[in-house]
Design brief:
The complex is a heterodimer.
Chain A (H helix, E strand, L loop, with lengths): L1 H8 L13 E3 L6 H10 L4 H16 L22 E3 L14 H9 L4 H8 L2 E6 L2 E5 L2 H7 L2 E4 H7 L1 H7 L10 H9 L4 E5 L9 E6 L10 E6 L4 E9 L7 E3 L2 E6 L4 E9 L11 E11 L4 E8 L4 E4 L2 E4 L5 E10 L4 E4 L2 E4 L5 E11 L3 E10 L7 E11 L4 E10 L5 E10 L2 H9 L4 H12 L1 H4 L4 H15 L5
Parallel strand pairs in A: 3-7, 6-8, 7-9, 8-11, 9-12, 10-13, 11-13, 12-14, 13-15, 13-16, 14-17, 15-18, 16-19, 17-20, 18-21, 19-21, 20-22, 21-23, 22-24
Antiparallel strand pairs in A: 1-2, 3-4, 5-6
Chain B lengths: L2 H11 L6 H13 L16 H4 L23 E6 L2 E2 L12 E5 L5 H10 L9 H9 L4 E5 L9 E7 L4 E10 L4 E10 L4 E10 L4 E8 L6 E10 L4 E9 L3 E10 L5 E10 L4 E10 L5 E10 L4 E10 L7 E10 L5 E10 L5 E10 L2 H9 L4 H9 L1 H8 L4 H17 L4
Parallel strand pairs in B: 1-5, 4-6, 5-7, 6-8, 7-9, 8-10, 9-11, 10-12, 11-13, 12-14, 13-15, 14-16, 15-17, 16-18, 17-19
Antiparallel strand pairs in B: 1-2, 3-4
Helix pairs in contact in B: 2-5, 6-7, 7-9
The chains are: A alpha/beta, B alpha/beta.
Chain lengths: 478, 419
């Protein structure tokens, strides 16, 4: 068994490789000039540049938050390069055949061959290689339905009214330190608009890759579901192995207008750092959605990567009868640190929210759930149910729960439950008795522990998530 | 820093007694402490305006105040009036094995030990605990000798008259196998400000039964702390009943400093008007095989606000810990507010920990139904919902105390209105 464990422990990050695509990269550093250059590269209109600059000025005044249960070296924002684009972008590929084959190979190594995926899964992929969207597929089919799915840089050019109206409307410029930084320097991301009464004909998906050394990645995603529409959006990511910490500060804004529904699923597998916690991604993400009357936003996330995670996908339940959901599996191992959870802000009458959070800690990692449920005075008849379960694997890790519950309406009902336990000896004994090796047994137990969340994921994502968990747990069992 | 704190520090600088080194240390820490604002996590929901605006100050202790008698209970009385120990009203005949003495009257050896133990259990993070370190003058030392069981409870009454500011401090220690009951009781009249801190050192196999009543309401600021250190196989059972005031804040810290220790804490609070009650309960499982069970129930009416922070921290070595925290809240009015945060911080894997928190309202339909059947509103309210807190009163080990406090709580609850 010791041999097995040693072997498993020696396993390296499978997605860790650097592909050789020539890149055009800004020198490290951040000032107004860099922001002007980013804006210039994108041919942005004046209002967009002004918006970025005002965010940057706000950011300069702000302080880095220190309340999260994470510990990391101070980030030197001047040592980060704020723009990098694959060179082949200059020729603007019109179809997959024109895409740099090196890029395609990168995706292939990650197990996401674009062509195959198009055929088999019927997914439109807006793949982001570093900072620029390289290829967007299935555009025609979506256009037929009236759905806009394009890089946000393109949306700024083509649909300025929509962008102007909604960008920053859910996550204001000075919402928090990392969101303000994102507003100033974001390079690209996805833009989705679903017209009134439309059910998006396919699941939309974006794969993110961080590839260039020293490149901060600042994605900006804006999804607008107009009245009575429905969309399911998938986000998945993985990054190559390197020694220096990389900063990832994305902002995702969801707007669900009356009767609309947005389902947002994430599988996050950024490089978690080596066994000593060296390298790895700092994932400081702001995700928030606003629900108007009868609307619904559902966040599902499977978090296995990054050395430091700071992420709270939230719902503002503004409209009456609106629904917010948060399903999360967060797995940490090695020296990973995750501080993640959600905020459910109940403003409207009869609003409902559900929070299911499953944290798994292994190795020397620390995994925290941090959540807020707030019932404002107007939230008559609102309901919340929260369940946070933690599973500890090994005696060197930590599992923490910090739920904030604030109620200012007597008719609102809030329930919160949390448990912490380990994989019990009895469970292990039972599985081993039936011929399962320890790793398979733990993997099976953990999968069962996470079942409530996995069933919320779209089919192909659920399979990937299960596999990811299994791979991530290898080497943690002892 | 607030004006009040500045004046408190100035006053403390003039004190020179056996506690001088501890006072100097506290003042040093206070000098580095920022005055809490909304952004200070420990005071996030509890604004300190009532402290900033307090009219209370040091007043004469020569006032006519005496503790209310509790039917069926004969206690060893320790009475403080406006912060000063009142020997005349306190019990003089003490059972064998019990030492009760002001710190300044101890002999040199005892005093050295008491100095050593001072603030050894109370964590330094409590701002007002530091103020108490610096300002409490009549520090009372209570200790029970090895294997001795003190049958009569000790009641520590802190009485305050209009406009008084008081800082009381009691250090309780139980030697191996000792048994003791302590009742902390605070009674104040009108606009007062008090800090009342008690440290309990519970040695191996000893048992402490603890009660804390803060049944005064109105425009006073009452800040306190009860801090417990448990040793191998020791036990404690604590019952807390609080009505709110302008600002009532209690910090409890239970430290499992030995193996196989057992702690139970039940807290009830009922708030009405514009009252605020803030309970910060921390449990530190530093050693293996400990058990903790906490039940906190709260009813909030009118414009009152309840704050609860329940933290359970399981250290790396505290394997085989069982810890459970249950927090249930009832809101009675649209303007009432509940902020609760049950925290778990766990670093050991072979433990079982759970917490639950609920917030709900009184069933208005059931209330209406009973009223249509001729039952008065307040009676119906008690019939339907008193069980919510009565369960915890039933858990009080001392029957006389339970029977004394039950009608007081019931009366208070009957007067709280559903709005």
């Amino acid at each position: 068994m010791t041999e097995q464990i040693d072997k498993a422990l020696a396993r390296e990050y499978e997605a860790g490789f650097v592909s050789d695509v020539e890149s055009e990269t800004f020198l490290p550093g951040l000032d107004e000039d860099v922001i002007r250059r980013i804006s210039g590269m994108k041919n942005e209109p004046e209002w967009m540049l002004e918006w970025r600059l005002s965010a940057f000025r706000e950011w300069l005044e702000m302080e880095e938050p220190d309340w999260a249960h994470v510990d990391y070296p101070k980030i030197d924002f001047q040592s980060i390069s704020y723009y990098s684009a694959p060179k082949s972008m200059k020729d603007k590929p019109k179809s997959l055949d024109e895409v740099d084959p090196e890029l395609l190979r990168t995706y292939e190594k990650l197990g996401i061959p674009l062509i195959e995926q198009q055929m088999l899964a019927g997914i439109a992929v807006d793949a982001v290689f570093d900072s620029v969207s390289v290829v967007t597929t299935f555009r025609d089919k979506l256009e037929e339905a009236g759905v806009i799915f394009c890089p946000i840089s393109e949306a700024i050019q083509k649909y300025p009214e929509l962008v102007k109206k909604y960008l920053g409307s859910v996550v204001p410029k000075k919402d928090n330190y990392f969101a303000a930084l994102n507003c100033a320097v974001f390079t690209d991301g996805s833009f989705v608009y679903i017209p009134k009464g439309t059910r998006c004909p396919m699941e939309l998906s974006t794969y993110f890759r961080i590839n260039e050394q020293n490149t901060g990645q600042f994605e900006r995603t804006l999804i607008i579901a107009d009245e009575g529409s429905h969309v399911s959006y998938l986000e998945g990511c993985t990054a190559p192995q390197r020694d220096e910490n990389q900063l990832h500060a994305a902002v995702v804004e969801l707007v669900a207008l009356d009767d609309a529904e947005i389902k947002y699923s994430t599988v996050q597998n950024w490089y978690p750092g080596d066994e000593d916690g060296k390298g790895g991604i700092f994932n400081f993400v702001t995700k928030r959605g606003i629900c108007h009357t009868n609307a619904k936003i559902s966040w599902t996330q499977v978090e296995t990567g990054s050395s430091v995670t700071w992420k709270y996908p939230s719902c503002i339940l503004k409209g009456d009868n609106s629904v917010g959901e948060f399903y999360s599996v967060a797995l940490t191992r090695g020296r990973q640190q995750a501080d993640t959870g959600t905020k459910m802000i109940h403003l409207g009458k009869n609003t409902r929210s559900t929070i299911i959070s499953k944290g798994i800690s292994a190795g020397k990692s620390n995994n925290s759930y941090r959540g807020l449920v707030r019932m404002n005075p107007g939230a008559k008849g609102a309901r919340n149910f929260t369940q946070c379960d933690s599973l500890l694997i090994g005696d060197q890790c930590g599992a923490h729960t910090f739920p904030y519950i604030e109620s200012r309406n007597p008719s609102a009902i809030i329930e919160h439950e949390a448990t912490t336990s380990k994989v019990s000896d009895e469970q292990m004994f039972l599985c081993r008795q039936r011929g399962l090796d320890p790793e398979k047994a733990v993997s099976m137990i953990v999968n069962g522990f996470c079942k409530e969340v996995f069933k919320e994921l779209p089919m192909e994502f659920a399979v990937e998530a299960g596999k990811l968990l299994e791979i991530s747990l290898e080497g943690s069992v002892g | 820093m607030s004006e009040w704190l500045e004046s408190a520090i100035t006053r403390a600088q003039n004190l020179d007694d056996w506690l001088a080194p501890k006072r100097a240390h506290a003042l040093e820490l206070l000098a580095q402490t920022k005055w809490p604002t909304r952004k200070t996590e420990a005071w996030r929901y509890t604004p300190l305006r009532p402290v900033e605006r307090t009219q209370a100050g040091v007043v004469s202790h020569d006032v006519d105040l005496s503790p209310e008698a509790i039917t069926g209970l004969t206690a060893i009385e320790l009475v403080f009036v406006n912060g000063k120990f009142d020997a005349a009203q306190s019990t003089k005949e003490l059972p064998a094995g019990l030492l009760v003495s002001l710190g300044r009257n101890l002999d040199a050896t005892q005093q050295a030990a008491a100095l050593n133990a001072f603030s050894a259990i109370k964590p330094e993070r409590h701002l007002f605990g530091l103020v108490n370190d610096a300002l409490a003058e009549d520090v009372m030392i209570v200790s029970v000798a090895q294997g001795v069981e003190i049958a009569q409870p000790i009641r520590i009454s802190s009485l305050l008259s209009q406009g008084a500011e008081s800082h009381t401090r009691v250090q309780v220690s139980l030697a191996d196998g000792a048994r003791l009951t302590v009742i902390e009781d605070i009674q104040s009249q009108g606009d007062t400000l008090s800090t009342a801190f008690v440290e309990y050192d519970i040695a191996a196999n000893a048992y402490l039964e603890h009660y804390r009543f803060a049944l005064q309401t109105g425009s006073n600021v009452a800040i306190g702390g009860s801090h417990f250190n448990l040793s191998d196989k020791s036990k404690m059972h604590s019952s807390i009943v609080g009505f709110g005031s302008d600002l009532s804040r209690l910090d409890t810290d239970i430290i499992h400093g030995g193996e196989f220790a057992d702690a139970k804490l039940n807290a009830i609070y009922l708030l009405d008007g514009k009252e605020l009650f803030d309970l910060h309960a921390t449990v530190e499982h530093a050693m293996p095989n400990g058990t903790t069970e906490e039940n906190v129930r709260c009813i909030v009416a009118d414009r009152a606000r309840a704050v609860f922070n329940g933290r359970i921290h399981i250290h790396r070595d505290a394997q085989k810990t069982l810890a459970a925290l249950n927090n249930r809240n009832l809101l009675m009015s649209d303007k009432a507010e509940i902020n609760t945060k049950p925290e778990l911080e766990i670093y050991a894997d072979d433990v079982r920990c759970a917490h639950g928190a609920t917030v709900a309202e009184i069933d208005k339909q059931a209330l209406y139904y009973l009223q249509t059947r001729g039952v008065s509103r307040s009676k119906a309210q008690v019939m339907l919902n008193f069980g919510f807190i009565n369960e915890l009163i039933d858990l009080m080990p001392n029957a006389a105390l339970a029977e004394w406090v039950r009608p007081i709580i019931r009366e208070r609850f009957a007067q709280m209105e559903v709005k």
